[in-house]
Amino acid sequence: MQSLNSLYFPETILPRHLRNCLLLLPDTLHLLQPVEPAQEETEAKADDDIFMEQGICQVHTPSLLGKDRKRFVGLLNEIKNRKDGFTEQLSSLTLAHLSQEKGSGDHSSQAIMSTLLDGQPPAAPESDENRKATLWQARLVLALAEILDKEEAELASTLSDIDDSELALFQDLKGEAEGGEGNDKEDPCAELLRIKAKLNQPRPGTVKRRCQAWKTLYTSATMPENFWLWMTSHEEAAELLINEYEEKAGRHAVPLLLLDLPEQIYMREKDALKSIKDFQEKATKVRQDITEKLTAIVTQDHLNIVDPVA
Questions:
Q1: Do 86 and 129 belong together in one domain?
Q2: Out of 43-52, 138-147, 291-300, which region has the weakest mean confidence (pLDDT)?
Q3: What is the pTM of this model?
Q4: Residue 140 neighbours by CB under 8 Å, 6+ apart
Q5: What is the domain extent for residue 270?
């Protein structure tokens, strides 16, 4: 009988505000990571991450960077710190596979990051060198997405204490004090409202680009097991996967089960771990029934078992 081990995609780090909810159903939730941790980092994470220590969450890097890890991590540090020389390093290390529009002349760091996250996928690789370059680019896309996710999460956390109505009231009072002649472009309150409004809006093309990069990493090497359950918190990512399945399987995807899970669970890690284990223990019979029924479905002769991204 199958288990409820699940593979999470296309993000390579669990969103903290969704982590506790996502861990309720699977026996173990597995994630891909673009860069393998160093030995000292592995030991530190084992001590700090109780979810990994308890086997509830596990991470994998399908193709190890090996001797190239130091160079890649150095590049990421350049990106984070925006140091001089970042553009040249990023341009050379991606081996000119960042964009099909090589004659655009725009080589700013923001333009390169935009190309990585929103640009067109590179041409199909034909050699080991091109495959290595494509995989390097995929790692960059996923790593950059992690950086942007972290920055947005930190900003959202900072702004969460600022109520929109309070900002609007302060803005009105400020306008009255200035005689109604305030410049909206220079108004910090108006700017904060615009930032808050955009935080929950996904960047155009980002999910698709991240899925393409995740697929490249996923197919670069054999996984430790063949995951039959995949999970995502992005509706667009699920639609992309379903479309690929239907195209390869030659049949429509059929909904099998609808589960109501909480949208958010705010708890400290130790409290969350206990709550998750208590829930899984109380729901043992239900989870066994789900596993048995799903196992019966996938073992039926008429069901097409297709890995949509293989």
A1: yes
A2: 43-52
A3: 0.73
A4: 34, 75, 90, 94, 116
A5: 6-62+222-298
